[in-house]
Design brief:
two-stranded antiparallel ribbon
C-alpha cells in the first residue's frame, strides 16, 4: 500500500461519510481527506463544511493534534528550508497530473 488512510466516513465529525460534491444531476463523495498511517492517531476530527456557492465541492476541514512527533526515534523533517511559495509552469502542472496514478 501507499501508507495513506482516507478519513472520510471513519473519523469523528464525519462518521457517516457526508457528500463532498453537489451538482445539478446528483451528489457524491469525490473529495477525500487523507493522512499517513503514522499520523492517523493524531487526527482529532475531520468534517465536511457548509456548502459555498463559489464551488460545487464542499470544503473539508481536519483537526490534527500536534506535538513533538517522532518516527522510529528520529524527528520529522523540518520545513524551514522549504520555499515560501511556488509558481507552477503550465507544462510542469500537466506533467505532474499525467504522472499521478490514482487508485
Amino acid at each position: 500500500g501507499n501508507g495513506l488512510l482516507i478519513l472520510n466516513g471513519r473519523t469523528l465529525g464525519d462518521i457517516y461519510g457526508a457528500v463532498t460534491c453537489l451538482k445539478y444531476n446528483g451528489c457524491s463523495v469525490v473529495d477525500y481527506m487523507c493522512t499517513s498511517t503514522i499520523l492517523f492517531n493524531n487526527v482529532m476530527s475531520m468534517r465536511v463544511c457548509e456548502f459555498s456557492p463559489l464551488s460545487d465541492h464542499y470544503p473539508l476541514n481536519m483537526s490534527l493534534r500536534l506535538g513533538r512527533l517522532s518516527i522510529l526515534g528520529s524527528s520529522l523533517p523540518s520545513f524551514d528550508d522549504a520555499p515560501n511559495s511556488f509558481r507552477w509552469k503550465r507544462n510542469e502542472a500537466n506533467n505532474a497530473c499525467s504522472d499521478t496514478a490514482f487508485v
